[in-house]
Each structure stands twice: as structure tokens, then as C-alpha cells.
Design brief:
The structure is a single chain. With 117 residues, the chain is mostly helical. It has a domain of 78 residues. Helix 1 crosses helix 3. 6% of the residues are buried.
């Protein structure tokens, strides 16, 4: 145990327990999302903005990172409790994207969504 001054007060007997890294939560077994979604979550959790957020240096990006992390948490809870939180989150994300995406002029019939640059 460590006290308020960060001094080691008590050492556990036997082998110390280690915390697994967050990357273990982003494997296919741990996070039940399609591969491309899991890769997106992984990128968002480990990019420079998220690194700065985790280390208390970020001035922006908290909300966007939190949304992705909460969506991943919803997927994890869905797999373990059958809560269907990601269904609701997906609908909300679709509405948000529709609101934030500028209207695209008719390009001659293509139904494809605009690609990010």
C-alpha cells in the first residue's frame, strides 16, 4: 500500500498483482465489435490527443475521446449483460453525423457517404 505522500507502507506477501494494460481490453475476445470499429477505438484511445488526456496535458479533445470510449464500454456491457446500449448509441451517432455533415449536392446518383480527407 502507498500512503498520501506516496511512500510504500505495506508490501503484499507473495507475488505482487499486476494490472494488465488497456490494450488487453481492445482484443477481439474482450471488445465485441467488428474489426474496423475495434481498430478505430484502439486508434482513438492511443492517439496523441488521448495520450495527452490520460496524462493531464490536453487542452481539447476530451469530449470526442470520451464518446468513443463510452461507445466501446457500451459494447463491452452489451456482450456481458445483453443491455443493447450500442443499439441506442448507434442511433444517436447516426443522428449526430447527419446533423454535423454538411448537405452534399446530388453527384449523379451515388449513395455513398462522403469520405473524410
Amino acid at each position: 500500500m502507498i500512503d498520501d505522500e506516496r511512500n510504500l507502507v505495506d508490501r503484499p506477501v507473495g507475488r505482487p498483482r499486476y494490472v494488465k494494460g488497456i490494450a488487453t481490453l481492445l482484443t477481439a475476445d474482450a471488445l465485441p465489435l467488428p474489426d474496423r470499429h475495434r481498430e478505430y477505438v484502439s486508434h482513438t484511445v492511443f492517439n496523441e490527443v488521448a495520450d495527452d488526456i490520460r496524462h493531464g496535458r490536453a487542452l481539447a479533445g476530451h469530449r470526442a475521446t470520451a464518446i468513443v470510449v463510452l461507445w466501446a464500454l457500451d459494447a463491452w456491457l452489451d456482450a456481458r449483460t445483453e443491455s443493447r446500449l450500442t443499439d441506442d448509441a448507434s442511433q444517436r451517432i447516426d443522428r449526430l453525423v447527419a446533423e454535423l455533415t454538411p448537405a452534399v449536392e446530388d453527384d449523379g446518383g451515388s449513395d455513398a457517404a462522403p469520405q473524410a480527407a
